[in-house]
Amino acid sequence: xxxxxxxxxxxxxxxxxxxxxxxxxxxxxxxxxxxxxxxxxxxxxxxxxxxxxxxxxxxxxxxxxxxxxxxxxxxxxxxxxxxxxxxxxxxxxxxxxxxxxxxxxxxxxxxxxxxxxxxxxxxxxxxxxxxxxxxxxxxxxxxxxxxxxxxxxxxxxxxxxxxxxxxxxxxxxxxxxxxxxxxxxxxxxxxxxxxxxxxxxxxxxxxxxxxxxxxxxxxxxxxxxxxxxxxxxxxxxxxxxxxxxxxxxxxxxxxxxxxxxxxxxxxxxxxxxxxxxxxxxxxxx
Length: 285
Prior knowledge:
This protein is mainly alpha-helical and 285 residues long. The chain contains 8 helices and 2 strands, in the order H-E-E-H-H-H-H-H-H-H. It has a two-stranded antiparallel sheet.
């Protein structure tokens, strides 16, 4: 009996490794930061020793007449610790994204790295190109390395056509890219949300402070003392606006900075895919 040979294309196994990383920081950090903000507001700014007329109570003592200008921030109300917590959350995610994206950028310029790989591939030295990926690291290095492993397999593969080989290389590159990009963009949504929410909370705190100030003014018929109380109440309420706008500005600046750097890394990944397919098509027709 004649032997039947299976001529169906063999699907290459992807060299990309699935990364399983938790994201517990996304819910732990905001909770801890808001708690920290409250503790700073209540026991730091709101310590009874900082006021001429300390109030009673534990959660929100009704202190008056702060001894220094800084402690007027306590009188801004309960929205102040929330804004402090939002600001601390912003700082945490800025640091986390900064470290992650710096690591993803690799150890050297991605443009120089791609040129080195192109040189090695032009000389048909795939192992040297893979060694460059190990030196570069980062997202571009990881994607290029996954593509080079497939590239090396396709060189010795005699069952697939050139077009099929190119598709296999491109598929591995796309799989590796799909693993890298979510890691780069993770938690950026918190910065974009903070940029909007911080301003709204600041305005909310200001409105609440103004309501309290005018309510106190209505209860006081002292004339000049009432005007003084109103001006102090307005100043206290505006602390919320300052905190909200400041936090929003920080979040917007770093969000734009991080997205710009991610766009640069994404461009490097696209250039890597183009380099691999063009090199293989020209050298191994």
